[in-house]
Amino acid sequence: HPHSRPRHPGARTMLPLLLLLLPAAHGVAQLGYRPTLTPSPPLEGLTTASTFVLEQPRCVFQDYGNAVIWLVVALDQATSTFNNTAGPGTPETAFQSFPDPVRAYMTLNATLGSYPCPKPAGDITVLRVGSETSCAQDVTRPTCNGPLPGPGPYRVKFLALEGSNPVAETAWSAQIMLRTAKSPNSISTTGSGHSAGMIAITTILSILFAILLAGLVAMLVFWDSDSCSGSSTFSKPESVTVRRYNTHHVYDQPAARL
Amino acid sequence: MAKSDDCAHILQGLLVFGNVVIGMCGIALTAECIYFVSNPHGLYPLLKATENDIYAAAWIGIFVGLALFALSILGIIGVLKASRTLLLVYIILMLITFAFEMASCITAATHRDSLTPERFLKQMLERYQNSESASNSDNEVTKTWDKLMLQNHCCGVLGPSDWQEYTSAFRLTHSDADYPWPRTCCVLDAQGLPVNLDGCKLGVPGYYNSNGCYDAISGPVNTHAWGVAWFGFAILCWTFCVLVGTMFYWSGIEY
């Protein structure tokens, strides 16, 4: 029987051979690459509330020209339980059932031709995870690259499939946390205090106004008395003209004498 | 006798000069306040929505300026005629005008202090593209923000991240994946369409406006508020001196 355990003495040589064959049968190469968020140029929308931007895996899958490269997006807790043989487009990896009950979905399939190596300098090569809003609710599109439903944390990895066999995978990325939006009610608009200018204006003007009022009161109280200004009385314009007339006469007399 | 004559003339001359300056400053104040009230930068809907009284200060300034001009003429006549009653009327009316202008200055300064970025941020988040509200002021706020962002090439109050850090009325109708920030934050071409929509959504430098609009708002508002407040303060200081001189002159007039 091919499935019975080897019990005869030839089993000792069979066992190491079987052990050697097992990894070859799995055949999933562990590539050293770790997916990251795009480091440059600095993007304002690197992580938003429902999307994030990954660097494209350029020059990573060079040996797998026939494979289709998929992106696996998983909840942080689900990275250890993800099965590489779960196929894309099945209910177990459908985006529309993420995050419950599906804990990791597969999306953004591409062939090696989409990731040419080397990367041309100056090109911005990114993958925006979460950009397809049109198919987010469409169960006929289980590989939709829909917006992520919560702030995470998430982890991603790239998986190369030939047909339905996984042939290579990258390491899981570091934790990716998305932004959480606060309510505008949390913005405090209560006074930032008064500036020095405003305080200066208020105090100085108040003092000036008080002085003027005091002066007005003094004027009204001392209406009838000349006590404050006895020696420096200002004469009315009529008496001034009279004095001018007198001065005119005074000057005339010496002229007449001459 | 001659000495006090000279004193009288000197004081008269000074008071007439003082009143001429007050009259001219009154006209200038009126002109300045009319300029501010005419809303040259189109920011009035934003300020109105924050229930702010900076415009009230400007309106008071217009009338105070005209009153100062009229009273300065009265003052000149009263000084030249050395009439006690005219000058008393002048002083009392000037004090009333002084009080109003004082109120205008303090109002302008106080309300300027309350126009912090947080206030505008909260208003923008609650009202920009608020589709639920039927009130006209929200539409005005939306139009003002769009115009502000287009003309000044800016986004949000502090930056496009305002739309990410806080939920908003805009977020209720526009999904985060399609509209991380409004389309008016993108660099637009001549037809008003984004030059590169994906670049704008990603936040690639050059395809979106990365700075906030607070500087574009606070610049004109500061000019407005300090223009009313400090110019009014200067006029009042000068008026104080003229009034004190007038009181001395009045108390020295024979009757």
Describe the structure.
The complex is a heterodimer of chains A (258) and B (255). With 258 residues, chain A is α+β, with helices and mostly antiparallel strands. Chain A has helices at residues 11-26, 196-221, 237-257; strands at residues 29-30, 52-55, 68-75, 104-111, 126-129, 154-162, 165-169. Chain A has a domain at 26-180. Chain A is 24% helix and 16% strand. In chain A, β6 and β7 (165-169) form a beta hairpin. The longest helix of chain A is centred in the last third of the chain and has 26 residues, at 196-221. Chain A is elongated, with a radius of gyration of 46 Å. The N and C termini of chain A lie far apart (165 Å). Chain B has 255 residues and is an all-alpha fold. Chain B has helices at residues 2-37, 44-49, 54-81, 84-113, 117-127, 136-152, 162-165, 169-173, 197-202, 214-251. In chain B, α3 (54-81) packs antiparallel against α4 (84-113) and α3 packs parallel to α10. The longest helix of chain B has 38 residues, at 214-251. Chain B starts with a helix and ends with a helix.
Question: What general outline of chain B do the C-alpha atoms trace?
Answer: elongated
The number of domains of chain B: 2
* Beta-strand content estimate of chain A: 15-25%
What kind of oligomer do you see?
Answer: heterodimer
Mean pLDDT of chain A: 79
Strand content of chain B: under 5%
Helix content of chain A: 10-25%
Question: Top keywords for this entry?
Answer:
heterodimer; A: 258 residues; alpha+beta; five-stranded mixed beta sheet; two-stranded antiparallel sheet; 3 helices; elongated; B: 255 residues; mainly alpha; Cd81 Antigen, Extracellular Domain, Chain: A; 2 domains; 71% helix; transmembrane (chain A); membrane (chain A); Uroplakin-3 (chain A)
